[in-house]
Amino acid sequence: MHIIFVCTGNTCRSPMAEGLLRQALAARGIDHVTVGSAGTGAWEGAPASEGAYLVGLEHGLDLSEHRARLLTRDLVREADLVLTMSGHHLARVAELGGEHKVHLLGSYAGRDAGRSEVTDPFGSDLASYRLTFGELQELIGQVVSRVAGMVR
Predict the structure, then answer these.
(1) DSSP H helical segments within the chain, as ranges?
(2) Active site residue 31
(3) Of 28, 80, 120, 130, which residue is the catalytic one?
(4) Which residue of 48, 99, 117, 121 could cross-link 86, Cys pair, CB 3.0 to 4.6 Å?
(5) Domain that holds residue 58
(6) How many domains are there within the chain?
(7) Residues with Cβ within 8 Å of residue 141, at least 6 apart in sequence
(8) What is the reported pLDDT for 13?
(9) Max alpha carbon distance in the chain (Å)?
(10) Is the pLDDT reported for residue 134 higher than 90?
(11) CATH label of the domain that carries residue 24
(12) Is 13 marked active-site?
């Protein structure tokens, strides 16, 4: 199974979600799921934002090797599951042919419709990145349980 996370620039939310899911899968001994991320408006090759990088380090998550990728039709085709941070990301994945495999991350994790989008910390202070990281930790906890049930 291959899962990708999608946000706008692929420098904040989706790399943090990718790293968190990798950690969670490893902690459960699930090694036959691959995880990636991309952005609908990514600058190809850009590193993780400083805030995402620093907050990741605070939680043992090293994003220093992350490089942004632009979401393409090929990336969507290769994925079994695409989890997006907001509705406009979901719409872009659908435009690229992934309507049958895309979900808002919050909805997939069981949040109600009014709380299904993940806050974007881009350009904000470190406290905002910490809030988004905490939000992602909670959501990824639910996602890993669902994924574990699908691949066992």
Answers:
(1) 13-27, 50-58, 73-78, 87-93, 105-108, 126-151
(2) no
(3) 120
(4) 117
(5) 2-151
(6) 1
(7) 24, 109
(8) 98
(9) 40
(10) yes
(11) 3.40.50.2300
(12) yes
